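BUG: 3D viewer hangs when loading the predicted structure for this chain

Environment: internal workstation, default settings.
Expected: structure renders.
Actual: progress bar stalls at 90%.

Input used:
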Amino acid sequence: MIIDIHTHTFPTSVDSMITADELIEEAKRIGLDGVCITDHDGFWDHNEVFDLSKRHNFLVLPGCEVTTEEGHLLVYGLRNYIFGMHRATFVKDLVEEDGGAMVVAHPYRRTYRKHADSSPAAYYEMLERASRNQVFSMIDGVEVLNGRGSEEENAFSHEMARWFKLPGTGASDAHKLDDLGTFATEFHENIRDLDDLIREIRVGNFSPIVLDATRSGHSH
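Structure tokens produced before the viewer hung:
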């Protein structure tokens, strides 16, 4: 099953230009099997997401992109924003308590600098510096293909996943309709609901996939 596990909708994500209904209709049109709505620090009511899914006859799952001091975390299984979630360790504890899953989003941010990528030694130094982030010991996967990242940025994320021997995910990180259809995550088992998604993320039973090679590797 091919699911875009990182997308944003308006108005919960104020920087998004698409509504949930528009997102779902476009995801269906381009042939995805499902989509996760992961708005910035905003949790959808799970019943509302279930209703969306039913209305569109399409798999729609709730998640959230949580902003922490250690980076942005895609979390699945939590229901509310709680004070303290600006710290990754706090989020990890909540995810453990609720039996959820957690993926680090676009880990190249704040660590990969194209202008500093001047030699193999300089590149390794960036990797080594990025590896000091404690978040990599808390997560189930690394977003290695992000639709808003450049080819070099996504390659850096791949290296981070390899460094920690973590599985990689892919997603559009859609903020507008034409963001969809770049990358997604292919799950090797059937995903019927949020519990299925969480279980498969936790066991690493997925692969990042390129949906449209002509559009991948370019910043939006």
